[in-house]
Amino acid sequence: MKRIVVLGGGESGVGAAILAKDKGFDVFLSDFGKITARYSQQLAAEAIPFEDEKHTEELILNADEVIKSPGIPPTAPIMVKIAQRGIPVISEIEFAGRYTDAKMVCITGSNGKTTTTLLTYHILKNAGINVGLAGNVGKSLALQVAREKHDVYVIELSSFQLENMYDFKANVAVMLNITPDHLDRYDYRMQNYINAKFRIIRNLTPEDAFIYWQDDPVITAQLDRIKTEAAMYPFGEHFEKNSEAYVDDNGQLVLNTDHISLTMPRTDLSLHGLHNLYNSMAAGLSACLLDIKKEDIRRALEDFDGVEHRLEYVDTVDGVRYINDSKATNVNSCWYALESMPRNVVLILGGKDKGNDYTEIEPLVKKKVKAIVCMGKDNTKLLDFFKDKVEAIYDTHSLQEAVDTCASVSQQGDTVLLSPCCASFDLFSSYEDRGRQFKDAVKRLNR
């Protein structure tokens, strides 16, 4: 009997273990950290053997195949030993793809992929499609393949998830943008990160589609070097050669595919800002390629509510607007947030730096930001970079201290923007935890 070892006891790992069990494999799951009660109870109920807070090598290195959770770097000691043994390593997505013939809409990008994924899912679900949501959002793809069975899956894919995908194939692949992110994972070499992202177009055939932002210099440069057989659907703010989605001179959003074409006023889109225009274009093109009716696409683009922790309005306190953009874990995400803001921004930055280059946001900071509040265990890099670029900069080491500082230095008409540029793991368990704590701290200001 083939032995499958799953590393990581979170959503993707537990889902992969359940699918492997259902397919009759000898399954063992190991997590070097503590598995939460929810997942340990799920594994126990499924009678899947597991361990946590350790990796027992004799139970792992006898695997015929390893399914690795995306957060585990290939440099982890157990991964090095697995590689030395020549044991194949795949992702949960790769594993799940072996057992379904559902259509796959796969979305990646340094920024905007969660919004685009949820918007695409919203369009399809409201059109009556039997659709599943997976990847970085929703439930494990493997668990859904095992127990739910959908006709279409909309999957948000990070570079980490794409690393160990080989035979998996998208039907519609979406590439929103590529900007520096997670470079600590990629030996601080941008090309390594680009290569990981572009694994999304592996195995595409002429019957498949590749949707991408045509004004991204990194994407266009990579497309000059590699080829895909897929039909190409570039999008941009204005019409250019080969554009399949753009805004025309009359302010109409135009979506063109071989399947369906539609137009609608840009002002009718529920999501505002240039970055959300691109997200809406990518989701709209994906829906057109799946033959969703025009009226269903228009209606869904008009009534989508947005994503928690992404440019989320929290409250107005003493005339100051508070915006939660905790999902901005890299510099380019912060750029998009600042691009959509008015002037007089009090900006909260900080967290676990991933090799960030802050020069990208420098012009917008000088134009729109009146003060920066740094929030993290060690803010030295931020303080050194921005000290001469804004009128005021503050050093804080907790979220409550940061919000209190923002409240004291802002005045009516200002906007306090949490858009940290950094990962959350110095002070918080996740960007969601950081965003929720921010919203709680803002609510306390109103008491």
From TrEMBL:
Name of the protein in its database record: UDP-N-acetylmuramoylalanine--D-glutamate ligase
Organism: Heminiphilus faecis
One MF annotation (Gene Ontology) recorded for this entry: UDP-N-acetylmuramoylalanine-D-glutamate ligase activity
InterPro entries for the chain: Mur-like_cat_sf, Mur_ligase_C, Mur_ligase_C_dom_sf, Mur_ligase_cen, MurD
The UniProt record lists the keyword Cell wall biogenesis/degradation: yes
NCBIfam families linked: murD (TIGR01087)
Residues where ATP binds: 109-115
Segments passing through the bilayer: none
Gene: murD
